[in-house]
């Protein structure tokens, strides 16, 4: 459904009886009690290479260990932070910054993946920003380059939705926030993100398949998060950091260490970009 401005109207947060909603509300209650903040306006999920963004978004007023919040656990992936931060924004409102996410490959449980964004919605967020480190399919987009997600292709064979839950995905990745990002940095390009199940990296044949399907980026997160976020009533913005070229495009073997190093090499550009986008929301 579209509002009078022509943008897709979001459904109210966590409406209906859906698996995981009660646990998300319980998690949000623990966060509210631990932080003293009744409502967080924006949620940010930091993926590989994006950890430095938390310091630039605003002042961290409270930090809650992930393992202390129902439905969460300490991250199992190197380079991810084991906390949820309550950050004060310049306008006086608060953002909820997740230093890690649950990946589908950890348990093959799409409901576990969805718990982060559902908790964000239950905590009062209206917007969620999903970040990730990913493989690039275009040799002209060098590692260390941020790419705005315009759409995705989910090839995991899974969904966080259950039963006859029909949710429109036409404008899943907010055109409004994508315009803001381009106004801040006109050099930004957009791309289609393809989520594979992982944890193995894609084969050269799978990379070629992703390109044929219309993909520009490949990774192991974000699409399932975004589906759950739309269902939960959140406006979604996604941005990837290209950390390497896909298998068969670059000759060197792929490794997670390469992902972490690419994030570090990107320096202050990507966290500053994210902070500027949030400052305009």
TrEMBL record:
- Give start-end positions of Polar residues composition bias: 1-13
**Per its UniProt entry, which superkingdom is the organism in?**
Bacteria
Q: What class of enzyme is it?
A: transferase
**Keywords associated with the record:** Glycosyltransferase, Transferase
For this protein, the record's Gene3D superfamilies field holds: Nucleoside phosphorylase domain
Q: Where are the transmembrane segments?
A: none
Region annotated Disordered sits at 1-20
| Molecular function terms from GO | purine-nucleoside phosphorylase activity
Asked whether the keyword Phosphoprotein is assigned, the reply is: no
According to UniProt, the reaction catalysed is:
a purine 2'-deoxy-D-ribonucleoside + phosphate = a purine nucleobase + 2-deoxy-alpha-D-ribose 1-phosphate
Q: Name one Pfam family in it.
A: PNP_UDP_1
General function of this protein: The purine nucleoside phosphorylases catalyze the phosphorolytic breakdown of the N-glycosidic bond in the beta-(deoxy)ribonucleoside molecules, with the formation of the corresponding free purine bases and pentose-1-phosphate. Cleaves guanosine, inosine, 2'-deoxyguanosine and 2'-deoxyinosine.
**PANTHER family (alphabetical):** METHYLTHIOADENOSINE/PURINE NUCLEOSIDE PHOSPHORYLASE, PURINE NUCLEOSIDE PHOSPHORYLASE-RELATED
Q: What is this protein called?
A: Purine nucleoside phosphorylase
């Amino acid at each position: 459904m579209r509002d009078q401005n022509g943008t897709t109207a979001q459904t109210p947060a966590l409406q209906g009886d859906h698996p995981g909603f009660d646990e998300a509300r319980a998690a949000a209650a623990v966060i509210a009690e631990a932080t003293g903040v009744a409502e967080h306006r924006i949620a940010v999920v930091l993926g590989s290479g994006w950890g430095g963004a938390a310091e630039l978004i605003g002042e961290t007023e409270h930090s809650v260990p992930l393992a202390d919040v129902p439905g969460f656990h300490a991250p199992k992936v190197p380079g991810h932070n084991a906390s949820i931060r309550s950050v004060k924004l310049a306008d006086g409102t608060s953002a909820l910054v997740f230093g890690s996410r649950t990946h589908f490959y950890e348990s093959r449980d799409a409901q576990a993946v969805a718990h982060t964004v559902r908790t964000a919605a239950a905590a009062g967020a209206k917007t969620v920003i999903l970040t990730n480190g990913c493989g690039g399919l275009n040799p002209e987009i060098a590692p260390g380059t941020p790419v705005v997600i315009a759409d995705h292709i989910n090839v995991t064979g899974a969904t966080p939705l259950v039963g006859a839950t029909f949710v429109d995905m036409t404008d899943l990745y907010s055109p409004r926030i994508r315009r803001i990002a381009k106004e801040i940095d006109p050099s930004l390009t957009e791309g289609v993100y393809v989520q594979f199940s992982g944890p193995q990296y894609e084969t050269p044949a799978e990379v070629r398949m992703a390109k044929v399907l219309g993909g520009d980026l490949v990774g192991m997160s974000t699409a399932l998060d975004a589906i759950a976020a739309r269902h939960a009533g959140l406006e979604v913005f996604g941005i990837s950091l290209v950390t390497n070229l896909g298998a068969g495009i670059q000759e060197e073997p792929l490794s997670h260490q390469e992902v972490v190093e690419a994030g570090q090499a990107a320096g202050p550009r990507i966290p500053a970009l994210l902070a500027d986008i949030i400052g305009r929301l």
